Q: What sequence folds into this?
């Protein structure tokens, strides 16, 4: 991966929020030379300032002066059209655009940038620690070499899954893009239940948090299907079976409703 990142050439990151900064740190740690990265943000937060200081990067308030090989759009979908209007001066003949803006489809990105060499992606927040996963769809003018460049950049944050049907990226958004929030809420709910049954706040939160951390680590270490891992914890007529009898009755339809709501919102963002 390092050799690929060294050969990509100039990368311009537009938007230095948590996800943008996390991706940039992953690129730099994986071999992208700091001199090949320009970060653009009109109001950089502390994370961006720390990034620039740690790696000796240039922060710019606007996209100017450089036609990058890869232009990474890491801005909120609500402001994407305004941002696209400012980028015409930096679009060169060798520029590939990579967007992580949720719900913004390739056609809209292509219109705004005036080119079809666009890749739409959906990473998730565990990318901040190199444990993310990203869904990606290529625009009509994207070459095999462009895909390799995108994979090299995004693999610094975790696996990359390519899709042929762009509509599936709205599903990716609902499952893995929003999914970490569902898991974090599970921790909140477990801790709240522990407190209600008499545990101290600190103990309930520690037990809930470490249970999910440990379960995720076991899921990563053991290739068995999740259903098998679940069964391994569940003794017949035991405590886990009693709890699952309640949980499984309601959780599957609730998750279906949750992810469907997130998918619909992703589609709405693309149309707004």
A:
């Amino acid at each position: 991966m390092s050799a690929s990142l060294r050969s990509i050439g100039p990368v311009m990151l537009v938007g230095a929020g948590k996800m943008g900064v996390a991706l940039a740190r992953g690129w730099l740690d994986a071999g992208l030379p700091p001199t090949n990265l320009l970060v653009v943000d009109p109001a950089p937060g502390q994370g961006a300032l720390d990034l620039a200081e740690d790696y000796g990067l240039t922060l710019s308030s606007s996209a100017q002066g450089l036609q990058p090989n890869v232009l990474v759009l890491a801005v909120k979908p609500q402001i994407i059209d305004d941002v696209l209007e400012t980028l015409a001066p930096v679009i060169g003949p060798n520029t590939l655009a990579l967007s992580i803006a949720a719900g913004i489809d390739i056609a809209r990105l292509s219109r705004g940038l005036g080119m079809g060499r666009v890749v739409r992606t959906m990473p998730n927040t565990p990318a901040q620690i190199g444990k993310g996963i990203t869904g990606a769809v290529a625009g009509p003018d994207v070459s095999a070499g462009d895909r390799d460049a995108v994979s090299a950049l995004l693999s610094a944050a975790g696996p990359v899954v390519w899709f042929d049907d762009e509509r599936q990226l709205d599903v990716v958004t609902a499952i893995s893009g929003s999914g970490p929030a569902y898991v974090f809420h599970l921790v909140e709910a477990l801790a709240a239940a522990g407190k209600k049954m008499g545990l101290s706040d600190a103990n309930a939160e520690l037990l809930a948090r470490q249970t999910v951390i440990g379960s995720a680590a076991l899921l990563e270490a053991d290739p068995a299907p999740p259903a098998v891992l679940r069964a391994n914890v569940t003794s017949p007529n035991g405590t886990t079976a009693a709890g699952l009898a309640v949980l499984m009755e309601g959780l599957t339809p609730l998750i279906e409703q949750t992810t469907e709501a997130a998918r619909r919102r992703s589609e709405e963002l693309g149309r707004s």
About this structure: The chain has a mean pLDDT of 92. The two ends are 37 Å apart (CA to CA). The chain has two domains: 2-170, 179-271. DSSP finds eleven helices and eight strands in the chain.
